[in-house]
Design brief:
binds inosinic acid, three-stranded antiparallel sheet, globular, binds magnesium ion, alpha/beta, Rossmann fold
Length: 170
């Protein structure tokens, strides 16, 4: 499948990530959040965001969640069992690449609540404009985009195109 037009350039992404970093700094000043990056999609976003924030006491944790095989959704979120009680009583920031149906974040937030996190916030680079069966309102959003399948900057199609520097429509 050929990749299509550039939706977001490296410069646009870099600028927006810096802005999100400033906002996160303000919110988490003086706190010790656990930052959970949802792998593999959030790989680049998480790394760039961490360079844009200044929270010496943040703890980083990566969680590997999957709901897709190719462009098809498998229906369930795999990988949530990796979470444990260590989040109890702590503020948690979830960092993900894209909010699509919302299933992933809703399931993750639910699990973190059950494990007793004191505050759960979400930061996504992209949010697709589309109707959703489950609703989730992210606390920080990089860009709101049309309901198209996108790749690059961590986002893949069957493990391909993840390392593209820009975000492109497939
Ligand atoms: P959800 O539908 O909100 O649960 O999104 C689940 C996951 O699907 C996201 O974290 C992405 O990893 C992946 N995903 C959703 N839309 C796209 C896309 O347009 N391109 C690549 N991955 C996507
Ligand atoms: Mg993902």
């Amino acid at each position: 499948m050929p990749i299509g037009r550039v939706l977001l350039t490296q410069a646009q992404i870099r600028k927006r990530v810096r802005e999100l970093g400033h906002s996160l700094n303000r919110h988490y000043r003086g706190q010790q959040p656990i930052i959970i990056g949802v792998m593999n999609g959030a790989l680049f976003f998480l790394a760039d965001l961490l360079r844009a924030i200044d929270l010496g006491d943040a703890e980083i944790s990566c969680l590997r969640l999957a709901s897709y095989a190719g462009k098809k959704r498998t229906g369930q979120i795999r990988g949530l069992d990796a979470l444990d009680q260590s989040v109890a009583g702590r503020p948690v920031l979830i960092v993900d690449d894209i909010l699509d149906t919302g299933q992933t974040l809703v399931a993750l937030v639910k699990r973190l609540k059950k494990l007793g996190a004191s505050e759960i916030k979400t930061c996504v680079l992209l949010e697709k404009r589309r109707p959703r069966k489950v609703s989730h309102k992210p606390d920080w959003v990089g860009f709101r985009i049309a309901n198209e399948f996108v790749v690059g900057y961590g986002l893949d199609y069957n493990s391909r195109y993840r390392t593209l520097r820009q975000i492109r429509v497939l």
